[in-house]
Structures are given as C-alpha cells and as structure tokens.
Amino acid sequence: QVPFGLKLHPDRKHLIYPLGSFIVLKRIEDGKLEFLDGHSNNVSCISVSKSGSYIASGQVNFLGFEAPVIIWNYAERTIHVELRIHNTKVESVAFSPSEKYLVTLGGIDDCRIFVWNVETKELICRNKATAQGHCLVVEYSKTDDTLFASGGSLTLRVWKFVNERILPTNCWTNMLKRYVSCIEISEDNRYMYCATSSGDIMKIDVEGKALIICGPSKAKFIRGINVLKLLESGDLLVGSGSGILALCSKTNFKPMIVKPANSVSPDRKVQLENAVTSIAISEGGEQFYVGTEEDQMYRLRFKNFTAELVSTGHRNAVKDIALPHATSKLFATCSEEEIRVWMVGKPKDQLRITVPSTTCNAINFMHDDCSIISAWSDGNIRRFGMKGQLMVVINNAHRQGVTAIAGTKDCKRIISGGGEGKVHVWELLPHTHQILKIMVGHRRPVSCLRMKSDDKECITVSSDGFCIIWDLEHFHARQKIKTDTLFRTVCYHPDGYQIVTCGTDGKVIYWDVMGGTNIREREDAETGVYNSIHATQEGNHFVTGGEDKRVKVWDYMQGKITHISIPAGAVITCTRICTLNRILVSTSADGGIWLWKFPHLASSS
C-alpha cells in the first residue's frame, strides 16, 4: 500500500520493501530476509540511492507528533542518521544522483520540502511545497543535483537548488487540472513525464516549464495511473489502478504492440489481479518486479512480458490462524473478506477463499482436516472444503456477527460465539444442521473460544471482562471468572485441569478449572496488552504475542520466558504452534505472516 514501496537494489540481488514499521531486505536467490528496524510507526515512503549505498525511509505518526526520516547505511545495515522535522507524515523522499543530497516532502499536515546533506547529516534549506493543493511526490533528476520536481493535487513544480536555496517554478499545463501521482525525468533533463489519476500522461518541457503533450487522448487508463518508469529507450512502463501493466510508446503513450518473434507475445500489456503500486527495475536488467495494492509481487521479463506471481500476502491485519491436526506443513489465515491456506516455506497461498462485503473474524480446521469452518461479520457460519468449495452455510447464526468458532473432534458439532455475547452449539447433520443450545453469559462480544481436549467443555472470554467455562454436556456455565483486567485470550493446558488467560494488564494468569481459582500470576510489563496465547500439545510450553510486537515462548511449569523474538513490524495479532512443535506461526496488524523455528522440539520434552 506504500506508493513506489517495492524497490530492486542496484546489485540486482535484493528486493527492498516496507512491512509495517520495518524495511525488509529480501535476497532474490534464496529468499533470505533481513530487517531494518528503527521506525516507531508504519513506513510511508522509501527511496534507494543510485549506487545503493543508502536507503531513505519516512513514516507516519499520530497527529501533531514528529514523523522522522531515516537514512540507512545499506552495507552495514545500520542507521546513518535520523532526521526529525516533519509533522505527522513523510509523503515522499528522493536522493540526488550523486547521493550528496536528500529531499524530503511532508504530508498534508506539514506541506514542506527540506533538502539535507547526507554526508554531514545537516539541513541545508526548506520551502513550502505548494501554494495550493496538496503535494504528494518528489522526484530528483537522474543526472543533475540542482534539479528536482514535485507534484500532487493541482500542483506541479520544477525546483532549482542553487546557493543553498530551493526555488520553485510552477508548470503551465494549458488549463488542464490533474492529480499527479508519479513523476519521471529524462536523462538529459529536457522532459518530465507525469502520471495522473485521470489515466493519462503529461509530457512537460523542463526548461520552459510548459506542457508539450497529454495522452493517450482517448483510451485512457481506467482508475488512473499509479506508477510509471522511464526506460533507456524513452518508452514508458505504466501501472494503472485497474491492474493494467503496459509498455507505452514515447510518442503517443499508447500500449505498444511488437512483431512476434520466437513465439513471443506481441502485446506489451498484461492484466494483473489488483492495482499496480510499484515497479522495481534496475539499469540494464532483463527483468523487473511489480507490486500491487493487495500485497502481490510479480516478476516479468522484457522479452516476453509474461507475469509470474512471486509472492502473495494479506493487505490488512490478520485476525486468526488455524492449524490442521495431522500435519505441520500447512496452516490457514484470515483477514477481512478472505481466507488463505499456506504451505510452510512457500511464499504464495495455495488456496484463497473470498466472500465479498463481509469480514472473517475467526477460522478453524475441523478435526478430520478436510474442511475449514469460519466465523463472519454478516452473522453466518461458513464451512469450506480444502478445494475452496462451500459445503455448509449456517445463516443468521448470530444477530451481531459471529466472532469466535471451534469444532468437536467427531466433526458433528460446531460451537460459535457472537457479537451479542451468546454461545451457540450447532449439530451438523448429513444434509442440514440444527441448533442444540443457546448459552447466555456474556454481555459483550465473545473474543476467544477454546475447546477442551475431551469436547465436554469449552471456554470463552469476552470484552465484558468475564471468562466463562461451559459444560457442553448439560449446556450451562460451570465457572465464571472475573478479575481486574479485560481478558483478551485464553488456552487450555492439554490435561484440561488448568487454563491460562491473558489480558490488558500484561499478566499471564493460571486458573484451576474445577474451582475457578487463581493459581499463580506472571507479569511481563514490557508487553502491555496480550492478544494471543497458544500451548504446545504436550503442555510444556506456550507462546504469547501482543502490543510490544514480540513473540514470547514460556516454560509452563516455571512460568518463565525462555525465548523472545525480534519485534515484528506491527502489533502481534495471533500466535500458533504447529504440530510436533516444528514451526511457530505469528501474524501482525500490518498483514505480515511470520514463521519461526520453535526452540523446543516435542521429542526432547
């Protein structure tokens, strides 16, 4: 979702992109990842210097707070300097061709342009970004340290950097009013190409600061142009909001058609699944990479212009993880209106299930691993087969949406929690379903539901501050637990005699199931709020994740933390330990899915 966020390093060996508050360096050859961690909030823009020695990144922040720009030393993977002057958001950053200067642009609440000396780490000069409208992007000349351009809503300017001052000149666009989304300047600094939200491209004379041509005149790109790249030939690579990626002619900006040779497709236009937000290309490279707003990454070759899907991901926060019971090679995740099934070690989803205009709140595998049950905000429960086919729909299962779900080992019952606080028990019949019992106890949405190993009990927690243990044989509440916290998550110890809760007070609390009494408490002040907890099958360890962005592994008997992960790019939303303890999966609010090697093997327990 970060404009121009996907970059190809000049060494052609690494891809660079933001993930939450991180900058990710991904080695193309083997997929090895490195992380640059320094921002306190989501990264909003990124730029790589011409030689690749430096990376610059800006971030968003809360209204009224400083939004820093960080210049990274690429070789050492360290912070070169942190620049704190913009307010709320950094909109765009760009290096000069000599890498001596960096220009930074503030967001709508800042609306200022600054020029920095990279070597001395000092501010050189500043100016207001625009007299009217809102500035969105800055682009430096490829060969001249004294020239850069800016554009946005109702603004397009060419800037000269002389005598430690930056002087703007507005460009004449012949009464055309355009929203400029991307700018490219030619090598000889004669022309400037500006992509617009109207779906056309403006060619500007840099010296005269005037419009030369605007095209294509008729067949404009639907949903506008998000990104363009100027090639050595003078032609343009264009990525649109409708997912069209096209190689366009430098004369009329129409998609090119070449004569077929060696079975190469003549069409230099390809339809991708979602809006294009980034095109990553290096000088002299035979291939390039494209990123979309739905977190998909494609690889294309100039020779045949065929798109190869490299990796996929969630665009929004991941709400839940589901693990099959018989294998550790597979897992599923849900986010907004989709469910995805993944193979461990594969960067692309193996199955994607989408239900438009509703949100999936929770998922679980049925115990036979042949289907996935899911809880949706439209109040329905949906059961899908492992090929994505819809098997069962329980309509209007809860009046205020289904918020939690689990199944029994015999695959004959589903237990669900709803937004109104009720817990429903459903019986699955060969060709239909029926409700067995409605259990009332919570007054607010059920946020977590867990089954006991013998299926005779389940436990729920709610934002009303109560944790309730339910008898699933007689359908009543056995225990109702309340303490000075809002419970967020809970898990059973595998023997079924104890439960562990986490909440907003940063405490991990052990409870006796029979008496509902507090056995012991462990407090981790650094975490603050816990969002997830999950225990291993043998019960020797459990994992937690929360607001501090770290996954923590605990020894169950000692109640001590044994391992702490590096921080994720955003708040941890869910954690799960796969069968046999081989893999630990965690998800975060930025859509990230993190796979960790679990430090305690089941065989050594």
Automatic annotation (TrEMBL):
It is found in: Cell projection, Cilium, Flagellum; Cytoplasm. The keyword Cytoplasm applies. WD repeats lie at residues 83-126, 395-428, 439-473, 489-521, 523-564. It holds the Pfam family WD40. Keywords: Cell projection, Cilium, Cytoplasm, Flagellum, Repeat, WD repeat. GO terms for cellular component: axoneme; motile cilium. Coiled coil: none annotated. InterPro entries: WD40/YVTN_repeat-like_dom_sf, WD40_repeat_CS, WD40_repeat_dom_sf, WD40_rpt, WD_repeat_EMAP. Its main location: other. Microtubule inner protein (MIP) part of the dynein-decorated doublet microtubules (DMTs) in cilia axoneme. Important for proper ciliary and flagellar beating. May act in cooperation with CFAP45 and axonemal dynein subunit DNAH11. May play a role in cell growth and/or survival. PANTHER family: CILIA- AND FLAGELLA-ASSOCIATED PROTEIN 52, WD-40 REPEAT PROTEIN. Belongs to the CFAP52 family. Microtubule inner protein component of sperm flagellar doublet microtubules. Interacts with BRCA2. Interacts with the CCT chaperonin complex. Interacts with HSP70. Interacts with AK8. Interacts with CFAP45. Interacts with DNAI1. Interacts with IQDC. This is Cilia- and flagella-associated protein 52. It comes from Gambusia affinis (Western mosquitofish). The lineage of its organism: Eukaryota, Metazoa, Chordata, Craniata, Vertebrata.
